[in-house]
Amino acid sequence: MNTPLLDIRNLVVDYPGKGLRAQPFRALDSVSIDVRPGECVGLVGESGSGKTTLGRAVLGLAPVTRGAIDFKGQNISVLSTRERRRLSSDIQVVFQDPYTSLNPSMTIGEILAEPLIAQHTAQSAARKRIAELLDQVKLPSDAVKRLPRDFSGGQRQRIAIARALALRPQLVICDEPVSALDLSTQARVLDLFTEIQRDTGVAYLFITHDLDVVRYVSHRVAVMYHGKIVERGDTAQVTTAPTHPYTQRLWMAAPIAEPVAQRERRERRLAMAADL
Amino acid sequence: MTAPVLTPAPGAVDAAANNHSASLARRFAKDPIGMAALIFLSIVVLACAFAPLLTTNAPDKAVLGNILADPGNGLLLGGDSAGRDVFSRLLYGGQFSLLGALLALSIAVVLGGVSGLVAGYFGKWFDTLSSAAAAILMALPGMVVLLAARSVLGSSAWWAMSIFGVLLSASVFRLVRQTVQNVRNELYVDAARVAGLSDARIIFRHVLRVVRAPFIIQAASIGSVAIAIQAGLEFLGLGDMTIPTWGSMLNDGFARIYQQPLLVIWPALMIALVCLSLTLIANSVRDALENTGSRHRTRRTRTGRGAAAKTTTHSSNPTVAPAAAQNTGTHNSETPLLSVRNLHVGYHQADGSTTHIVHGINLDVHAGEVLGLIGESGSGKTQTAFSIMRLLPAGGAITDGQVLWGGRNLAELSERELTALRGKEIAYIPQEPMSNLDPSFTIGSQLVEPMRLHLGLNKADAKTRALDLLTRVGIVNPERVYSSYPHQVSGGMAQRVLIAGAISCNPRLLIADEPTTALDVTVQAEILDLLRSIQQEHGMGVIMVTHNFGVVADICDRVAVMRNGEIVETGPASTIFSEHTHPYTTQLFDAILTPDNIREPYRAPNTMKGEVTTP
Q: Which fold has domain A6-234?
């Protein structure tokens, strides 16, 4: 039962440099990580650490230089475009920006129908599924006739989640799905993510820079730095007793939303910095 | 909890939904100018197509008695220099002029559109080759090519128009390629790809929708240009003289302009009006496609909501006022540095009304105090910060209330007096450091300029001070950063530079608008440390606009919570986290993820995909 759903081994992603003799840029350097069915694995790191590239590589949107991405035992990093298209019912995505990830000129109904059409779902079945999805993400059913601009950021992200769930995938790559949202909306969307996971058994690779968010949603956490995973483990262990110096630095830098506790953390961080 | 999610602004949504369900044709029909142009063009096209039904006179039948005849006597628009019926020639000539333009347009649109789509979407070698070809075509002078072609291929109008179509296709190509490249990088195209859509489907569903609007505008202008160029060729006598066209009629009329001035009017009027109506129709179709008509409507709805919210101000004010009084109480001994009283901020609308976004707020900032202005997006916190400096975007203004600064009301100062104050006494740090540095100047020159203006330093002194400041904000190699351009430094570094700039004239108040939101946490911690030490060193007052409670806990002395343009609660940072009274504040604080919120350990699901597991 504990065989991983997604198993990434020694993944290397190089982006070609600009100009004739330029060195390629190594975005991912021998990264290994696995996700089990129904599990949420958090991927934390700062900008430029390669966490988004890892998600895009799994989705087939980033070039894989070396290494393997096994999904249910099959290496999906070497698939043709046609074979990759068939995978779309198993692996889906929720992007960071709810404003550009929905086509502004399409109605919500058209947006949600898109993955269903691609899998040749019949009209009536598609309509039924869309109603189910809207219900699942707690949006009113008359949303189908409206355009994305009629919705707030949090509501748009719910639509993006509904689109990702349309084909009942087993894995959803969540690329900073709540970082563009307001605080109160953020908590509700995160609750929706965990609720859906409990109900459907979908697995998440949850990419975020927010340490509180990663604690809230993930079973396990991997910390990325300069294209490498520097620390990994169960959420409680990595977030309360980190061992790698970078993880420690990251955790000490995140402010706690409580003045007294934050003053203590700040003083400890400054003391740590002074020791170095 | 879910109630607010389920109820988006009702009026706006209904309006938009109705608008969208209305068919394209109905939306187009609502535009009177577009409709008038369409009706005119349809009449012209039909009249030309059914010319034999409208006139019994053949276009090339010359009657001696009708030479240069005035309108009347069975000739609706008179006779031309050879005694032919002008009305008949106008109709039959329209057939050739319009068909010729249509030929050029179709060739340009099909050739340029398809190659632009392929080059923009798939790129690679085809893009390189076709872009080069388009560049060559654009470099060729159209008229010269047409003249050269005429000497080789003869005076056929159809050949000329085909060649002209190929020349024009370059501009269509460039437009389509550029638009498609932009769409291709949109996240929703990535999402469609992940959803399993084929390239053909993505192009059809996503790319064409974006391309069509500029494409229609371009096509209309190409149609007009084709009509005009064709007429130009014939006017010069280079067209096919055996068929009647508007251009050859112009030529004839121009030659007889002193004998019969009316002759030149008819074809000229025809060409002008047809070109004009093409452009007007294209604009209306574009508007209908983009559904821009409803923008006006949603805005009006928002005004309504603003007004509604404003009426509630009075009922909620009593709860705010005591809170404000209580807090000024803690600093009773000294007068505040900045005092905002009953501030209203509004934006003027196109229909003459004003949308209010800040509804009578009160704020005090004391010297050496950090005031956190916290709220969700759209709460008016940034607008409040901007209005203190009177730097609101176009249309925005303080509509009521006072901004008291050392006994002066900033709301009433002249622009000149304010300019002297901004940067010198009140400084500002923005959210996006990169977009607030001018990419075409070095960092050094951008730091030195305000110091020379406000402090009257000479160039050398200003440079020394700039380097000192850069060192002060923790930049290890100030000389290098001083001579760098903004794109050569990181985001954290750019924010340090802006902080250095903000404190360069020893301001008494610093307004920081989400200064760390765009930065990584480790950089955020460093920037907050820096702001704290500088603030303590200079005894500055700081207004920290933020939505991050961690930042509030780290740096703020006092907190004001904003919602919908009102301050719902204020209090000392040390206590507001545990003791708050307003339901909205409670709701906000409850949403904070604390270190105690941690996901329960993983349990392997015992059912497969799609089925429900019991938790």
A: Rossmann fold (3.40.50)
